[in-house]
Specification:
Layout (H helix, E strand, L loop, with lengths): L1 E9 L3 H12 L4 E5 L13 E3 H7 L8 E4 L2 E5 L5 E5 L8 E4 L1 H14 L3 E4 L1 E9 L2 E9 L2 E12 L7 H4 L11 E10 L7 E5 L8 E8 L2 E9 L8 H11 L2 H4 L2 E11 L8 E2 L2 E3 L15 H21 L4 H29 L4 H12 L8 H11 L13
Parallel strand pairs: 1-2, 1-11, 2-8, 5-13, 11-18
Antiparallel strand pairs: 3-7, 4-7, 5-6, 9-10, 10-11, 12-15, 12-16, 13-14, 14-15, 17-18
Helix pairs in contact: 1-3, 1-7, 2-7, 7-8, 9-10
Length: 396
């Protein structure tokens, strides 16, 4: 079997489906390859998503995939002090708790309605190279090998991305820039369903823990640990079990699903395009280094990727130079924030519980309209200037 398309997108997550949709809308002939037997499953996500982010992605809220609408966030210091943030202040992980499997399926349907084709259980196993450019992929479907010729290959194959590596793009992530995550889908919990909860400090070394309500008495409860702080096999689960046990409202619950995965929390990588190739979403390391959230960033980058890829087809120019329009576009929208948040993450992962307690205290007493790394640092500087000497470069 041999196929021929303008664009082949590897991966049917939000980044892949949205890239395919925008390219198809602009007239390109697009195929999505998804290695899993079902788009969106298994879920590996905390499922928090903010309303402003959805708007930037060009997506309208849909009751099909909204599990719960929240009013804001609670951020808990190690000493138990709670900082309450209303929705307008709370940032990228607040607004909705979604049903990620259904969300992904709906995005894939939108891509199909726009004219894209999709093939599930289809794994890319190699890129095709011709005269120094990427010219498609070799793939496997139900045990049968086949080739897809394409002018442009889009790597949207997530954290474990192989497409970029095959194409010679360095997407290597250092261990200190990886979070290992473990999460329970729990029923019977006793928490405020109007707020997403975040827990900082030694309960999740180098990262944070969360409880995202999916309705009354149900929540995603999990944590992310910096890989370099993990000392033994199974430690993420042990940390999560200890975290749940220490909190009465959560310990009442029972897990009905275990979810494990990893996420990159690195600085923006040097390059996301090449001759006939571009990377988007987790594959391009466009994750927010502070939160590990990637849906919104993927969606913003995907709109640019789809548009530029279609323009490339129309211009019959698939060069690195032409596709650099995508590189410049997503960096203009995301790079400054990603880099600032990475620098902040680097600093914050080394803080003691006592210092975190002081930071939360300072923020609670500071008038902040909307939470951002910059605003947080300003708040800390106002009360504890000695704590931000190392952070001065982030305040510029």
């Amino acid at each position: 079997m041999a196929l021929d398309y303008d664009i082949v997108v590897v991966g049917a997550g939000p980044a892949g489906s949205l890239t395919a949709k925008h390219a198809a809308v602009a007239g390109a002939n697009v195929l999505i390859l998804e290695k899993r037997p079902e788009v969106g499953s298994p879920v590996r996500c905390g499922e928090g998503l903010d309303k402003n982010g959805l708007a930037r992605m060009g997506i309208k809220p849909d009751k099909k995939w909204i599990a719960n609408e929240v009013k804001g966030a609670h951020i808990y210091a190690p000493n138990g002090r709670c900082l309450e943030l209303k929705e307008g202040m709370a940032g990228n992980e607040v607004g909705y708790v979604i049903k990620r499997d259904i969300f992904d399926k709906e995005l894939a349907k939108d891509a199909i309605r726009a004219g894209a084709d999709i093939m599930i259980r289809a794994s890319a196993i190699e890129v095709i190279k011709k005269e120094g450019a990427i010219a498609g992929v070799k793939a496997k479907h139900m045990g049968e090998r086949f080739e897809v010729s394409a002018k442009i290959v889009v790597g949207a194959d997530g954290f474990e991305s192989q497409v970029g590596r095959w194409a010679g793009i360095d997407t290597t992530v250092k261990p200190k820039d990886i979070y290992t995550c473990f999460q329970y889908d729990m029923v019977g919990v006793d928490i405020d369903s109007d707020y997403s909860d975040f827990f900082l400090g030694s309960c999740a070394p180098g990262g944070y823990a969360w409880a995202f309500p999916k309705g009354k008495h149900r929540a995603n409860v999990g944590l992310g640990l910096q890989v370099t702080k993990i000392k033994g096999k199974g430690e993420p689960k042990r940390y999560l079990d200890a975290f749940v046990k220490a909190r009465k409202g959560l310990s009442k619950g029972t897990p009905i699903a275990h979810i494990a995965g990893a996420v990159s929390v690195c600085a923006p990588i040097e390059k996301t395009v090449g001759n006939g190739i571009l990377l988007v979403g987790d594959a391009a390391r466009q994750i927010d280094p502070m939160t590990g959230g990637g849906i919104v960033n993927s969606g913003i980058a995907a709109q640019i990727a789809g548009k530029v890829a279609a323009e490339s087809i129309q211009a019959k120019d698939y060069s690195t130079e032409f596709l650099s329009r995508y590189e410049k576009g997503w960096r203009k929208e995301l790079e400054d924030k990603l880099y600032r948040n990475w620098l902040a993450k680097e600093k914050l992962t080394s803080l003691s519980d006592d210092t975190i307690n002081k930071i939360i205290e300072a923020i609670a007493e500071y008038d902040i309209e909307r939470i951002s790394v910059l605003e947080l640092l300003k708040a800390v500087k106002a009360k504890y200037p000695e704590l931000v000497k190392e952070f001065e470069d982030l305040l510029m």
